[in-house]
Amino acid sequence: xxxxxxxxxxxxxxxxxxxxxxxxxxxxxxxxxxxxxxxxxxxxxxxxxxxxxxxxxxxxxxxxxxxxxxxxxxxxxxxxxxxxxxxxxxxxxxxxxxxxxxxxxxxxxxxxxxxxxxxxxxxxxxxxxxxxxxxxxxxxxxxxxxxxxxxxxxxxxxxxxxxxxxxxxxxxxxxxxxxxxxxxxxxxxxxxxxxxxxxxxxxxxxxxxxxxxxxxxxxxxxxxxxxxxxxxxxxxxxxxxxxxxxxxxxxxxxxxxxxxxxxxxxxxxxxxxxxxxxxxxxxxxxxxxxxxxxxxxxxxxxxxxxxxxxxxxxxxxxxxxxxxxxxxxxxxxxxxxxxxxxxxxxxxxxxxxxxxxxxxxxxxxxxxxxxxxxxxxxxxxxxxxxxxxxxxxxx
Length: 395
Fold this sequence. Notes:
Blueprint: H1 3-12, H2 27-35, H3 38-45, H4 52-61, E1 64-66, E2 81-83, E3 86-88, E4 92-94, H5 107-117, E5 121-124, H6 132-138, E6 143-147, H7 153-165, E7 171-174, H8 184-188, H9 231-240, E8 245-250, H10 253-262, E9 266-269, H11 283-297, E10 316-319, H12 325-333, E11 338-341, H13 343-374, E12 388-390
Parallel strand pairs: 4-5, 4-11, 5-6, 6-7, 7-8, 8-9, 9-10, 10-11
Antiparallel strand pairs: 1-12, 2-3
Helix pairs in contact: 2-13, 5-6, 5-13, 10-11, 12-13
């Protein structure tokens, strides 16, 4: 098809619309199973291996109930979040997710437009199917760039400089996924990445050499892990970056304390959506201990009384299994300052493009506001562990 014919076909296509029956953000997951080819859906929905951690992420939310409170005045309520002195309209961010064109032709550009339309911070992925510069042109003013260390420091540095030049406000370094194992479901359906899903940001850089067995015959230790970053690499990046550097993939309090001591700007509590170590703890289960360790190191008191003041704690983002506003509320109550939405953005994108992602974010924000209002929390700072009750399983 010629360029003019393609443009004509696009002009003739009906405008995107929200399908009937979408009543909550989670509804997009069910509709996505019809919009995405089965092998691709298995890849997106699955984690690594047998999917134990992916399932654990969802189950962790069911262990908590939100306690309603009475006669609280929330008429001046809002969802504004403060991270390192910067104010965000709400605590929802779009997590870095690779290859959006796997589920929709509009890809990351549609996702970026939805972020802009809803005042949402987009965390653009290194492994996007369009360049970070293209995403920056469509996203709103609050945009961050997720960085994977490359085999050569020169390529990593060039990605950093490109992100700085494109106006990204922070760097999010993912450290927990030097090895990723496909899910059994995707393997069973013989999933293969389609040709339009290429890492557009990396095409100009040399790729990693093929993993070869080392002296001990290990394709893992001396092969795949040969180029995995270590503490010296993080220290080098911190020295090079003019932007605040966050680290994504933290599940252990000792790692969180060491990262804070190293000078990172913030931490993302995440198990990579279950795509890294299968059997790792649920992100929500890891969150309270990390928050407690950081607060204790700073001389703060865990579980402090609700406040209307901006949150000045060491900043934590949460990533892992969020499907509704109640999930967001629970993550905030257990110590997060804000949350990142992963798979749900791809589900909404697959169903209705940019409009779907924007609608999903609107629903999530309203669902959060309902939880806040009924729990008597007028601001995010008032959402503390006291707002939750351990859920008792049914006999």
